[in-house]
Amino acid sequence: MLLVARALASRFAALAPLEKNRIEHNLKAFESTMTGKIQAWEQLARPLKGRTVITQHASFGYLWLWLGITPVADLEPKPGIPPTPAHLAKTLQLGQSKRPMAIVIAQHQDPKPAKWLSGQMSNSPALLILPATVTDVQADAWFRWFDLLISRLVQAAP
Q: CB within 10 Å: which end of the chain, N or C, has fewer?
């Protein structure tokens, strides 16, 4: 987001040179807020590093990479394809051996396979149904979305 913000600020300043000072001021404020939030999120998420999850699709792939979480199985046998009973059985077997901290799906995905899997696993991983994007248009929505994602993941970690 910092790279995007910097590129946008540069372009906006070129398009509206009379607004350059205000654009640069807003960019500095955003950079300061973002830097503080990143530090806070990384501190909060430290216990997640090295943990595993079962996921559906690659909706949160950027988050796994950033936080050091390893997805050990995907509920979809192929992107966009609902899991078959055979695939769920294989995922259950893999989940029993890898002992993920959570099964994570996006809120627009069918929760039935994830609920079934969670109920079948002996270590009873948390089932997290997370929003895949911001859900409102308030100025701080993006920050609140990351606050929610990280806090829910941390709560799921035993």
A: C
Reported as a single tens digit per residue, the pLDDT across 102-136 is 999 999 999 999 999 999 998 889 999 999 999 88
Is there a single domain that holds both residue 73 and residue 140? yes
Tokens of 92: 């259950």
pLDDT at 90 (0 to 100): 95
Do 65 and 21 sit in the same domain of this protein? Answer: no
Helix (H, G, I), strand (E, B) or coil at 101: coil
Q: Which of 122, 143, 131 lies closest to 40 in space, CA to CA?
A: 143
Q: Are residues 32 and 108 in the same domain?
A: no
Alpha helices in the chain (DSSP H): 2-15, 20-44, 61-67, 85-98, 112-120, 141-156
Number of domains in the chain: 2
Q: What is the pLDDT of residues 62-91, one digit of tens each?
A: 999 999 999 999 999 988 899 999 999 999
Q: Count the neighbouring beta carbons within 10 Å of the beta carbon of residue 38.
A: 14
Parent domain of 20: 2-44
| Dist CA 16 CA 26 (whole Å) | 14
